[in-house]
## 1
Amino acid sequence: MAETEDTNEYVGASANQVLFHAITSGNVDLLQEVLQGGKASGGKKPDLEARNALGDTPVLASLRAGQLDILAVLLDEEVDVDEAETKHDGDRPLHLAVRLEDDEQREWTVSQLLEAGSDPRLTNNDGFKPVDILTAGEQNEKVRRLLRDAEAISGFNKADVVDEDEESDEGPPSDED
């Protein structure tokens, strides 16, 4: 992708190509510009569900590239945080997050993905949930707890939860009646 000096546009590149270039190069400024449909992407906004040649979505690509600053920007957008890659093992963002080498980055990334709505119960093509591939060890106990707690919360059906603030005329009378 050639960048012109005069207009700062990526000549001949689609918005999605510029998006994936920004992700893999870790260029937060370029990512923000392309997300806004700026000059670098020819005034067009990218498809945040697009896939690169590896079958990765923008979220997966940012994790594979280890670009957590890029991931943080993407999570502020409406992106699917559960979409699996399509060309290899079917890993989802949480699967890649638990494989991060740095303990603090792993914990932060898992926490952010869960906060963004990622479902820890989803499996990859081998039938493994993220918690299943998390290595043993004291350094992973906090991440393991985050995943287990999120699994438990995800297992609740909202219809099974009683809203105590909601008043109803049905049911037995209380002592206050």
## 2
Amino acid sequence: MMTEPQAELLSNSPAWYADPALPGGLEFLDDLGVNPHARLPVPLKVEPVSVGHDVRIGEAALLKCGVCIGDGALIFPRTVVTNNVPPYAIVAGNPGEIIDFRFPERIVERLLEARWWRYHFHAIQELGPENVPAFLDRLELAIADRAVREFTPGALIGAAVIGSSCCDRYD
């Protein structure tokens, strides 16, 4: 299935590109009288969306294929993001526009340089994240003194994730 209309094709109808391996694919082609072995290859033009660390994407926001959302960005609900979003930008609207930045340029540079998300939550929480410049002062000192080290969590095993459900408490 194509993700976006593709003007250079003769047709964008799924009849040309239906995949017999998909549920209902053979029936769809049969109903149209199309030989499933004569179908064209699916012309996928899907560019993945890249989302940085500590990004907040509001409810019902739409992201165009291939956009990059920088670290720390805030995307308001129902925003239509059609362009790349720089780190720590605040984006809203249709089409999405940068309405502000969360922090001054020098603070953004320090946040990106420190890459604070690499450290365990409890270790950085003790540094007082409510005042960002002071937090960065303390984090940079802790990094220089090797008082904090990068957090490397263990791998999640599928059964462990599937076995735990936040919905259990609603039974």
## 3
Amino acid sequence: MAGIFVVFSLGGPALMYYVTPAEGEVFKKFNPELQARNLALKDERMKNYEAFLQELKELSKSDKNMWVAAKEKQKKMQEQFLENEAQEKALQQKMREEMKAEARGMRDQMRTEARGV
């Protein structure tokens, strides 16, 4: 029984070490196009990861549970997004009304010029 324990406790990690390829080996087996794309996007992935870690650090500073703080932040961002969207729609509506008023004014001006001539 002890022999089986030794075989499994030492053999399992040894097998994993033998079977798992090194990071460079896997990358070298990629298609050259994939290698180029992977290298090009590496900086972007690192920036995203750093931003994620920074956000986690900010959330962990709160007295609240991290999940509750994240939910509150998400809700606040959603409210801000909806507010910005409503402002944008109001601005678009205002621009449409101004354009319609300008078109009406030009149309009325053209009618008066046509009658006067």
## 4
Amino acid sequence: TSNSMLLGFLEQMEMGEKYVYFSTGWSYSTCLQYHYVADQKTWTEAQTYCRQTYADLATIGNKEQNDQLLDTITSAGQSSEVWMGLYSTIDWRWSDGFSGVGANYSNWRSDQPDFNAAHDLCVAVRNVWTHDLCVSVRYVWNDLLCSYKAFFVCTSRPLGAT
């Protein structure tokens, strides 16, 4: 099966697909592909859509994966909030259950998370603007109401992955 996974990965790489590599806590590592979805949904609706169509909302375990997610968002021309798979009940956790090496990686905006009125329990990537210069500084994580409607990014396993 590892050969078929590798062949599926290489076939999709030849088609110019972008992948993120990380350990999922399983006995082997998998490559995930990010999919930007240009449809505004609440976090729960986005999670349901990703699970039915791909695998789950995007998980990020390190700076390289964060950069890959941002490349996916910016190449889609998106500059507003975009849901990813991080949420909180009491502790922050990933929608797909990821808890391996890198699960505690974060890229929060300097004043986040703020748990505004204790209702901000879902996380979006947000473009921060410098109003003095009227330019985008960087994309950072921001906690928002889960009922807020935003675009989102899903992940999926490449062809041949089990």
